UniProtKB/TrEMBL annotation, chains A, B:
PANTHER family: FARNESYL DIPHOSPHATE SYNTHASE (PTHR43281:SF1). It comes from Brochothrix thermosphacta. One of its GO terms (molecular function) is metal ion binding. The lineage of its organism: Bacteria, Bacillati, Bacillota, Bacilli, Bacillales. This is Farnesyl diphosphate synthase. It catalyses: isopentenyl diphosphate + (2E)-geranyl diphosphate = (2E,6E)-farnesyl diphosphate + diphosphate. Coiled coil: none annotated. One of its GO terms (cellular component) is cytoplasm.
Length: 293, 293
């Protein structure tokens, strides 16, 4: 199966599963349900669930077993976007070309939508069919550690604190390894966990995920400088206005592009150490490094 | 062991465990860590973890096994308070006589503190020592269902929507069964799950938890009318100002007090059906119904 087919078919399945999960919720308040559906159906590249499915696909052909963990991951990512966009955080009115949750609804509804998605992700993991209890527990632990105070949340807080000062390249990498990297790593690693990867395979995949995590953030910073705001569905140049330390401000645009190329080639090199067909992960690596939005 | 001893000793252990959990977190951003500790050490009655421990105590003498689920429950409760207090929600400056999180820190930090506590609760449950994987999964499912879109979150959203209109007594009970009741029920039920209650015992305890859930909310509404704002550490009369439908506005103060007495006696009656010594649960029931803050 080509990457195009894998990607297209998986996205259709993911979109359907996300909407169906929200539509079949019991006892849910209608405005809350609407807000959950609104943010989950905003499209997007679905990079995290695709990484999870592509990694799982190294070990098993039939991907359905990993679908629930994949949508749980997308829910956690979506919750983080809803909260990041809030007036008290990044104060963004648009995301993926559509009004952000607090603009389409209101702030209280957006806060609760984020809270709801985060909680629902753990419920889905606990109920994931075809996955044994021990594996479910491993996934829940990984998701919580990556998304919580030892991961994404601390990265987010550190990012806010860093706006008040200039940070070193090392500190910047540390912030982003938590803020963006943790969930990307968890996506790859959970695919490996569900696929029962050997400890060697797991180690390689974990290393790989860290490389693409940094690559992702560098490209994010590059896009804030040279990206097309129409394609991105949001304003660019925000980092400069905020005078934020970014890869481009610390390394120049050319330096950042070179750094991106380094991380990407290290990622490919790690994939080449695996015996499986890594076409889909290679394509996702390229997608992360070369994306225009 | 008397209730006073149980309650006092358990609270000391809970407080210590909460603080220790935050202090031993790895890779946590310092301001985030401070905000987590601030809200968790605000004191409070610790009703939910005490209900969990008291229920577990019906089945086992040594309570330590249930301590992690108990503090995870308190973390979820605390997260819900932090987010409820936000300007976009109830906009409260004080809670338990101290500045609310967004006042003591700032809004972004408060939002992240809530997010962090919610996520951490699931991490703790996934890592709870001495509890087998299948029981952990049951607990995670129960906590997520009670706190998420099918539980507390929908209750919170429904409560906000209800402010715009007058609701019936039935609708009010439904809102509060989700908003406040769900976590109280989960507290009692998880004590029963960890204690391996029989299905009959579980059913009785679940019923009991629903009665005290409603009793809790009725007393909340009564305190908003006749409570001492100094003891409560927050302003009273807020419901009236907002023209909210409450048990007192729908039933009069006397009617609400009578309704409270009904639910409380039904709760005692259910406890009397159990063969175990239910002293601690009886005392907690009285505490809920007769509390002055």
């Amino acid at each position: 199966m080509s990457f195009e087919t894998f990607s297209k078919e998986s996205k259709v399945k993911l979109d359907q599963a996300l909407v169906k999960t929200i539509e079949t919720l019991q006892n849910v308040e209608s405005r809350h349900q609407e807000a959950l559906k609104y943010s989950l159906s905003a499209g997007g590249k679905r990079i995290r669930p695709l990484l999870l499915l592509a990694t799982f696909g190294l070990f098993e052909k039939e991907l359905d077993k990993a679908m629930i963990p994949a949508i749980a991951m997308e829910m956690i990512h979506t919750y983080s976007l809803i909260h990041d966009d809030l007036p008290a955080m990044d104060n963004d009115d648009y995301r993926r070309g559509r009004l952000t949750s607090h603009k389409a609804f209101d702030e209280a509804t957006a806060i609760l939508a984020g809270d709801g998605l985060l909680t629902l992700a753990f419920q889905l993991l606990a109920e994931a069919p075809e996955i044994d209890d021990t594996t479910r527990i491993k996934l829940i632990q990984l998701y919580a550690q990556s998304a919580g105070p030892s991961g994404m949340i601390s990265g987010q807080q550190a990012d806010i604190e860093a706006e008040k000062t200039t940070v070193s390249l090392e500190a910047l990498a540390e912030i982003h390894s938590q803020k963006t990297g943790a969930l990307l790593t968890a996506s790859v690693c959970s695919g490996a966990i569900i696929g029962k990867a050997s400890s060697d395979e797991y180690r390689i995949l974990e290393e790989y995920s860290k490389k693409i995590g940094i690559a992702f953030q560098i490209q994010d910073d590059i896009l804030d400088v040279i990206g097309d705001s129409k394609k991105m569905g949001k304003n660019t140049g925000a980092d400069q206005v905020l005078n934020k330390s970014t890869y481009t401000s610390l390394l120049t645009l050319e330096g950042a592009q070179k750094e991106l190329a380094n991380y990407t080639s290290e990622a490919y090199e790690l994939l080449s150490q695996l015996h499986q067909d890594t076409t889909n992960l290679e394509a996702l690596t390229a997608l992360i490094a070369e994306r225009d939005a």
